[in-house]
């Protein structure tokens, strides 16, 4: 739920800034880029925060090697994607990469829900939120 709040607050704040005269944000596309960037920076921090990192490592399916390295790698990719979203010439490519990343990481959410590890939403809610995030990033990519 927290990433969704970050997305909505980031988008609405950027859109409001656009309406108040920040020309670079005076459209839905750049405001959505900002909202997604805020969301991905927020979620990326969990990959490195000591109190949250262990939960993310526990979400990685057991058959995958080096879950700690995978969590670090995905956190780094989320940060890179968030930065790319804020660069107009890169935003579409960054969004497309983030769509692929979210699709690739979703099995970890399924595995975690089935194994009942880590905190978070049940699988049904996770799926709905993931669809929203993928849809928002797809809108930016197209």
From TrEMBL:
Coiled coil: none annotated. It is a multi-pass membrane protein. It is found in: Membrane. Keywords: Membrane, Transmembrane, Transmembrane helix. GO terms for cellular component: membrane. The chain crosses the membrane at residues 27-48, 69-87, 93-110. It comes from the Bacteria. This is DoxX family protein.
